[in-house]
Predict the structure.
Amino acid sequence: MFQRQSTLSLVMIAVFAALTAVGAFIKIPLPVVPFTLQIVFVFLAGCLLGGRNGFLSQLVYIGIGLAGMPVFTQGGGITYVLQPTFGYLIGFALAALVIGFLINRVEVPSKKHFIGANIVGLIIIYAVAVPYLYMALNVWLNMKSSWSHVFLVGFLNSIVADFCLAIASAFLAERLYKVFRSARALKLVRVEKENVQ
């Protein structure tokens, strides 16, 4: 029974890791920090997989990229931790964890719960990414940049679009959540039957 549950979880983790990678290549080039659709799959991973599995999906994505697969917006490899945008990837994992935790606390989450959780996740992403961007540019890349410049390229350039994506993802998550929840409930019924037998 646990093997079946594990298999389904592993498949979903792998699927959302792959979707996040695909999102990296749907991008609009901007100075320093390109705009991508990765964040949509981060929101959905947290909302639909729960905190633990959503977090793991992003860790798998990051791990594959650091191992050398070119799944990030600018390639891959262990040295990617020095890229100014690596803070966003750290933020993705933490956001998925917190979003899933918030959604799981509600027995029957509604639209407002998904929107609220996604906005909290968005705040976490930028809270990690912007300071990381500043450190990367000024410390190890020696590209002297003021906080105002970092705030512009790392926050203002994309926050409106990301906020809209957070809302849109919440609406999508509300619809998909019922399907995911039904699948989990069906598995639990099967597991209980197997235990009785």
In short: The chain has one domain: 2-196. The chain has six helices and two strands. The CA atoms of residues 103 and 109 lie 6 Å apart. Residues 191-196 have pLDDT under 50 and may be disordered.
